[in-house]
Amino acid sequence: MNKQLLVMSMALAACLVFPSFAGAQDSGSDDAKKKFSGTYVLANSKKKERKKINKKIEKLVDKMSFYKRPFARGELKDSTEPCPKLNVIFSGDDMAINCVGNVKAKSPANGKAVKWVDSDDEEMRLSQKLEKNRMVQKFRSENGLRTNIYRLKDGGKKLVIDVKITSEQLPHPLEYQLVMRRK
Prior knowledge:
This protein is of the alpha+beta class. The protein has one domain (38-182): Calycin beta-barrel core domain (Lipocalin, Beta Barrel). It has four helices and ten strands, in the order ααβααβββββββββ. It has helices at 3-17, 30-36, 46-61, 69-79, and strands at residues 38-42, 85-91, 94-99, 105-108, 114-117, 123-130, 134-141, 144-153, 158-166, 174-182. It has a ten-stranded antiparallel sheet with strand order 4-3-2-1-10-9-8-7-6-5. Strand 6 and strand 7 (134-141) form a beta hairpin.
């Protein structure tokens, strides 16, 4: 067997054994979908979470010029309202993460970005990807990027959300964490 044929055979075998090598777009296993599906509520009060986020916002805007602070503070507070109740739903290859009372964030579960419009009619790109142990959700607008990483904890009783907001207008990303409990 010549060298080229051997390399091609090994590559084909690798694709059969490890489908992700072939570029397969896995939209998450049924097991992961079952683990994440459900309704979650804030573990702490909304007021306590708001206060914690506001402290992080103040620390961030303090590093900005005085004339940018009020605008940045208002924008960040508007975009970081803690969600009191969250539904995670899977339908076929799509996933929806819905903060009750807001526009449902629905897209393919394989990370493909789609057009999405928020409750303030701001258009952005939404991508969501279900992985084995986490869900990654990204909202990209002309003003920046918000990334939410959802992880289960305590055997699925808690949902931890790591939030990161980046923008060229900010001196550094705003990062915080929310903890929700399964209802």
